[in-house]
Amino acid sequence: MSARNPGTELDLGWISRVQVNQPAVIRHAEQIQTRRTVKKVWQAAWLLRAVTCIDLTTLSGDDTPSNIQRLCYKAKHPIREDLLKAMDMHDKGITTGAVCVYPARVADAVKALKSAGCNIPVASVATGFPAAQTPLKTRLDEIKIAVEDGAREIDVVINRSLVLTGQWEGLYEEIRQFREACGDAHMKTILGTGELGSLTNVYKASMIAMMAGSDFIKTSTGKEAVNATLPVGIVMVRAIRDFYWKTGKKIGFKPAGGIRSAKDALTWLVLMKEELGDEWLKPDLFRLGASTLLSDIERQVYHHVTGRYAAYHDLPMA
Amino acid sequence: MAGGCPSMWGIYSAMEYGPAPEGAGSAQAWLEAHGRRFGHFVDGKWLKPEGRETASSINPATGEPLGDTLQGEPEDVEAAIQAATKAFKSWSRLPCHARARHLYNMARTIQKHQHLFAILESLDTGKPIGEARDHDLPLVIRHFYHHAGWAQVMATEMGGWEPLGVVAGVVTWSSLMLLAWKICPALAMGNTVVLLPPTHARLSALLLAELGAQAGLPPGVLNVLTGEGALAELLAIHPGVDGLTVASSVEVGRSLRRATAGMGVRLSLQLGGETVIVVFDSADLDGAAVGLSDTMSCQRGQVPGARALLLVQEAVAEVLLKRVKTRLGKLRIGDPLDKAMDGGALADEAQRLAIETYVEEARAEGAEVFQAWTALPAHGPFYPPTLITGVASSSRCVREQVLGPVLVVLPFRTAKEAVALGNNRPSGLAASVWTENLPLAMEVAQSLQAGTVWINGQNLFDAAAGGGGSKESGNSRDGGKEGLYEYIRLSWQSWPRPGPTELDYKTFAAAYGADPPPIPGHSGVACPTGPELEENMPRVDRTYKMYYGGSQKRPVGMASRPILDPAGKVLAYVADGSAKDIRNAVEAAHKAAPGWGKRAAHARAQVLYYVAENLELRREEVASRLGVLMGTPLEEARQEVDLSLERLFHWAAYCDKSGGAVQETPMHGTTLQLHQPLGVVGIACPDERPLLSFLSLLAPAVARGNAVVMIPSPRYPLPALDLCQIFDTSDIPGGVVNLVTGNRDHLSRTLAQHQDIQAMWYFGSQQGSQFVEWASAGNLKRTWVSHGAPRQWENPTQGAGEEFLYQATQCKTVWIPMGEIFAN
């Protein structure tokens, strides 16, 4: 993780005149998908980079210590060792960026990773994930407990009702308090973009979240009807660039929800490279929130190395 | 990994894109299969006459020769036109459904081979494969499908119209898309085509013709000739060519306009011009920046409209330009066959040098030049995306069109100034308006003189929406129903195809008073006998003046012409107008035109009805004077007055029934087709039916919001002059209708040469028609001439048909993308 974002004073002037034209953003998104591509060895290398940016995630009601442990092992060994060796990448420390779990599973994950002997951070969702419709006090407590249990990253989720009713000061204050509760843990702020009503609101919420001290802004919980779409990503990275131009602070970006294919991962990397630059292609400024994405990437890498398409059972499951 | 290829670790660390070349195998195989030597494609087969010089098609990016094509000679032009003429006989008589099937099959065939087309297009023109594949080919295919539909419904939708015959297509911009724009409507309407593809990019056209034959297109329906640009003129003046459709520079357009003057060839011009992009402070500035960088990379300025002029509101200029510059730095320029390139190669080194000279000139004038040099290939005709700021509106880089990835930036303060700056150029091709303020967007879109306006977007095209320009960008339309009219003629009209006439354009009708009216008392003209006496009182002298700016005006030359009755007796004297009177009348018309064009349609209709009402009041008087003038029985004259009245009603009715349509394009949003007024229309009226023809021409022009400068019949101007008092009392705003009497050809000469007349209608001699067409090349005004052929004004088809509406309006396509709702 990069240096913390101390945040700024709330300046509503930064968001008051913003206009996002959705059709233009959609055309831009189509262009990004057709105008850039990586092939062959470049594709394989980019996919390995994508792996290091994955927040390998399980957020299910039926999570138990056993599947958390499996997830953590997969985080440490995301690509089969023999495949990495064939590419001479086995000693380059390729692991996922983090594992991401519910607060109640943080302790299990920390324990599993410790026994696997690795330093991959545990990220915990918090603040009444996914709806944020719980009292502020319990939302703040959730953060503190997750941090106490060993989470080094907290994925907080904003109160969408504040956006929909235009209470930007209130939103800023809440996120400020989240930030304080996080202590040393890095804070990723989930906007729940599928429930914000417009791309202009997505931009405004992004900007408020960064002013309030978020280290990352993240698209979705994965539980909304619409998750990480490219147009939403374009708007959020615009906000990141504007914030950087204004403050000199680099804020990370995490699309999450619905990212399943290796091709999707490459598209998101292209978006970061084109819109923000190469610095945003590393896990300290870019994460992909995903659960099944990794297995598709591993299959593509398998194909690159062997020239054959893999069966799912050829690769260890998470 | 093999030597030379960077290591996995190296790529993983650097995260560069790496090459993504598209294999050129299919195109190379096609070239090889033809031995890399091509003939013309005429009459369904390759035509390779002996002894022709050849030209080498070169891949501009690499200099690699692709194949040799022929430099056509006049005999080849002859052969192609003969083949097309022969084919026209059966092709034009096919049932609509059969032609629809042929075009549908063409679409399908191109679709099946679109990969080959895209590669060949990229190899031959240097355009990025991605653009050819994702932008051009889908549009080409869509054009064929759409026009298969027009072929199918021609009988019902285009009743009363017929194909022209043989249409010659001249395209000098390297784009398969433009070829399709010309071919599709021509074929759909039953014409056969002889195509002269661009000198620099001939191969796609040859492939298209060959595949057309394979798709079952009858021999001779689509012929492709290759050769130098000089062949264009041979085609244009060939008596076997009935229609000429051109996509080229303004200079070529002008010279072809002049070359075909008076020949009765239907001319459709799609000429150069820039896209004027207006960005307001209320815009989504990031969206606009993406649009701007896209405009600059797209097509590298090699097709009309790709050169862009950015007008940005001063308050946001800095913010916007920072964004644009950042984006330009990210554009990838290089190997056109690389799938991840934004820009490819220019046509050749000469084009690169021209752009360089022009940019350096701007720099020398003190302009600030920003160039994104990132990763430009070391060799080949490549030029970096360039932004020029700090220029004056008089600078050459603002006034002239240099084709290339160059964006010139001018700041503006207010919306009014933006429109003024946007329209301050002779061309009028396309415009983009960026603002989230809907009332502003729509008003600016209405006000910009351009054939296409994109609101919050750029480079949107579709076969269902007529694209094209205005002013010197030519007024052809490609796509939609409006694009069909250039390929059809009216069934009732015998097709006047006069040969080229020797006409001294310098002197034709140039001298004022050179063709003096008869002197009364001589050459059979009776002397006027003075005012009639009634009870020893002379009647008061009636002086006919001219009428412009809403009042009666004496001629600047202070001269009069006698008007004779059929017996040769002087009935009256009318003003003998000169160039200066025309000048004054045009000025008056321009003052009135903008306001009249903006008048509500209902209000315009009311004015025309009021004219009719007042004419009805004076029916007997007008009829009796008409009878005396023409020597016709009173009953016949009454009929003409009544018909005239009906005509006024007809066009009053059309004031609010022909404003445009919504085009069904694939874009999510609304594509409006607006029928806008042309501006100021000069109209020279015929001698036949002097009252009816005068009103039949005046009414549609005025109904559709134009201001007119009318030259009434020189022989029978009195009925028109009698109407002036009616106009005065019918709430026609001053300057909307202007009358200048005098010698038709002398006055028409000034009108046709006037740079600020938007259209010229001429109903007079063949020679006059030829002159008007020739002179119109100056500002490429629209012309509608009679070629000396009479028409039956009393016949509703001939005197008030769809043709009048078409001539009285220009189409503007406004693209309004929509969408704000997403997710919940």
UniProtKB/TrEMBL annotation, chain A:
Q: Keywords on this record?
A: Cytoplasm, Lyase, Nucleus, Schiff base
What family does the entry list?
Belongs to the DeoC/FbaB aldolase family. DeoC type 2 subfamily.
Catalysed reactions, semicolon-separated: 2-deoxy-D-ribose 5-phosphate = D-glyceraldehyde 3-phosphate + acetaldehyde
Pfam entry (one): DeoC
Do the record's keywords include Lyase? Answer: yes
Q: What is its EC number?
A: 4.1.2.4
Its source organism is: Pelusios castaneus
Instruction: Tell me which SMART domains the record gives.
Output: DeoC
> What is the name attached to this protein's record?
Deoxyribose-phosphate aldolase
- Show the GO MF annotations: deoxyribose-phosphate aldolase activity
Which CDD domains did the record assign? DeoC
GO biological process terms, alphabetically, are: carbohydrate catabolic process; deoxyribonucleotide catabolic process; deoxyribose phosphate catabolic process
Q: How does it assemble?
A: Interacts with YBX1.
Q: Does the keyword Signal apply?
A: no
Q: Which InterPro entries match?
A: Aldolase_TIM, DeoC, DeoC/FbaB/LacD_aldolase
Q: Where in the cell is it found?
A: Cytoplasmic granule; Nucleus
Query: Active site: which residues?
Result: 218, 254
Task performed by this protein: Catalyzes a reversible aldol reaction between acetaldehyde and D-glyceraldehyde 3-phosphate to generate 2-deoxy-D-ribose 5-phosphate. Participates in stress granule (SG) assembly. May allow ATP production from extracellular deoxyinosine in conditions of energy deprivation.
Q: In which pathway does it act?
A: Carbohydrate degradation; 2-deoxy-D-ribose 1-phosphate degradation; D-glyceraldehyde 3-phosphate and acetaldehyde from 2-deoxy-alpha-D-ribose 1-phosphate: step 2/2
Q: Which GO terms describe its cellular component?
A: cytoplasm; nucleus
UniProtKB/TrEMBL annotation, chain B:
The protein's name is: Aldehyde dehydrogenase domain-containing protein
Domain Aldehyde dehydrogenase: residue ranges: 46-491, 563-788
Q: Which GO terms describe its molecular function?
A: oxidoreductase activity, acting on the aldehyde or oxo group of donors, NAD or NADP as acceptor
Organism annotation: Pelusios castaneus
Report the superkingdom from the record. Answer: Eukaryota
For this chain, the family text in UniProt reads: Belongs to the aldehyde dehydrogenase family.
Membrane-crossing residue ranges in chain numbering: none
